[in-house]
Amino acid sequence: MFFSLYASAAEPERAVSGHAVSSFADPHALIRVPDNASYVGSDRFTLAKPDIGDFDACEMFVFAKADAGGSMQQVYWLQFEHYLPGHPDLHYTYDSPRHVTIGGLDFYVDVDATEGTNKPASGSDGEHFYGLLATHGYKRTPMMFLRLVHLPDAKKRKELMIIVGKRLPEGVTAASLKPGGAHAAQWPAMQDELVAWAQRNLVIATGKD
User: Fold this and answer.
1) How many CB atoms are located within 10 Å of the residue 100 CB?
2) What is the pTM of this model?
3) Which CATH number fits the domain that encloses residue 179?
4) Which of 173, 204, 164, 184 is nearest to 73 (CA)?
């Protein structure tokens, strides 16, 4: 059983069972990833900035599929966040015009690609994510990532972020997908397929908060 950073032991907010994460609030939902992905682990932490200190509480759950050598083929990063009460002026803002609905939840959509060699910013959620994977022997590879963000209420001070990653096809790099690159013409279709793939393979069952 895993507990939210600020929940009492009598009131668990999130739990992992098999290939699913149960969230009992913000939102109330069961999120299931494909059976071929293994549960890697969880992490709880706060994000901070030098000028304001701790401002955002995060609870992360990671599932992944790797080849025989440990190189990542698929990854699922589920993260629940909320701004801390000491920063009432902060709100999550997203400007992506693209949205999808999964399990009745509306998500902002963004897609990107990476060579798998960049170093995450110190103290960032990316550092926690890649650190958790590395601790369990997973190796980074060139991947494309779909970021899905759901804001559970009108105040926009809480969010559910789901990031789905798939290894790029052989011979395709993040650089080759940029404008002018050898595979740039394929990039729009690859993005559409990743979104459709996530809609087929992520199962979200919602309940009442």
Assistant:
1) 15
2) 0.92
3) 3.40.1410
4) 164
